[in-house]
Structures are given as structure tokens and as C-alpha cells.
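Bench notes, afternoon.
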Amino acid sequence: MTVPGVDRRHSVDFLRFIAAFGIVWAHMLTPDPSATVGYASLALFLMLVPYLSILHIERKAERPGRFRGLVRIRRIALPWIFWSIVFKALIALQMRDPAQFFQLNEPRWLLIGPTIHLWFLPFILLATAIFVPLSRRIDTARTLWFACGFAVVISIASLYLHDSGRALEPFAQWAFSLPPFLYGLLAAYGEKLDAPWPPALFLISVTVGFWIFGSGFWPPFFLLALAALHLALTFEVRNPVFVKLGSLAFGIYLIHPFFMLVWYFLVQGGANNTAGAVFVFTASAVATAIMRRMPVVREVV
């Protein structure tokens, strides 16, 4: 899901690539303690999606009319539909039961897809549809502060639901994802209004509060993702290669479960290890690069 535009932040684009690697690493090395880096990578991924999208809209002076709204929805909905079909077919093939392709074993799959990693797409779809139109009202530092206060309230409720353990899939993932998504959205407006601190204070206050008074595992990873983004914004390194690598991140996320299956087949279900993580990430990146050069298919990566 590449956001075209000018005046790109090359370091931020490279962060997308790094975040994709962190997610693959986490999936391949679980339950090794180093796999926890995936939480920071996911939070960073969730920050960057709305951040880059809003900056693109603002710099192009677009207004989200009906057509533009449909374009943004299509960019997310088409990959979700395509990869749901692909992974459903792979499951049926793996089980050697063609009937599995047509069976809905769990109604919540309509909010996820046939594999759990696809929860990301419907979340982005819904969050974008709800919060991006509302964010268009942010045009002054005062309205930004008000929006950040609103985000604090929503995030506290969302993270309380997540930490309570009562939320089922995909709602537990969505509850975890909402605060970093809101931060990315608000940070883009903070940059536009030259007011970066209100969004940062929103996420820091919520995170530190839960770190002190809550029992969740996630607060350090939110802060790590926040620090990584601010470092990339502060110490900009411009290199066109970073833009190209960043454009692969979305496809890597979507494709990597397939190459995990390939790795397990090659090593006969061998251990999740560093070699496997490198193989899966590299193969996913190469496959994404190839697909992005193909007409029609490039729309789903």
C-alpha cells in the first residue's frame, strides 16, 4: 500500500521496511524472547499507515470526496479480498479437502479472513473510514489539542478492553492497534501545524499510565515505536533506495505467511530460527517487488 507523492520522508519510508522485518522476525522466532520486537514493529506499522496517508492528502491539497474515499477503500479492500481467497485456497490444499474453500468455520472470519494476520486490513479499512473524515476538522493547534484529548479517552477504553482479556479475535488486535493508529493520524496534523508535541503527549501519557497502573506487556513497545519514528523525522537521511524498500513493506506483511509454509516444507517443519526469518523476509520482499511490476496484480501488494 504505497502512498505516492512528493517531498517524501525517505527515513520514514525505510522505517516501514524495518517494521515489516520486525513482524516477520516475531512470527518466525516465537516463543524466543527476541520475538517481542514484533510488538514495537506492529505499533510502528500502525503509526505509519495513517501518518503517510494524511501527509499525502494534505500535500496534494486533496479533499476526501466520494471518489477519493472510494479509492482509499479500494487500496485496502482489494488486497484483503485477494489474499483471503489465496490463503483460503492454500488451507483447502493443505487439508486436501476442496470443500474447505467454501466453508465458513468461524463467523468472525468475516472480520479477519481465513488467516489471523489478515485482521490488519479490515482494521485499517474501518479506522480510516471512521477517523480520517473526522480528522479533517483539525485545522488549528487548539483543535489538535482537543482531538488528542479525545484520543486519550478512546485509547484508555480500547487498551483496557485489550488488557482485560475479554476481547476475542480480531477485537483484541483492533483494541491494541487503535492508539498507535490514532497517534499516526494526529502526528501528521501535528507536523502540518508545526505542533508535534500534543500527539506525542497523548500517546506517552496513555502508555506511561498503563505501564504504572496496568498489567499489560505492551507499553515499552509503544514508546519504542514512538522513539523510532521521531528519530527518523529528526535525523532525515535521503536515499531513493529507502523509498523503494518502503514500498515493499505492505506486500511483505501480506505474503510472508505463505513463505513461512514454504520454509517449514523445506526444512520439514524445522525450528523457527534466524535463517528462517531471513529466508521468509527476503523471499517475501522479492515476490512483492516482482508483483509490483505486474499489471493488475500490483494493486494487491
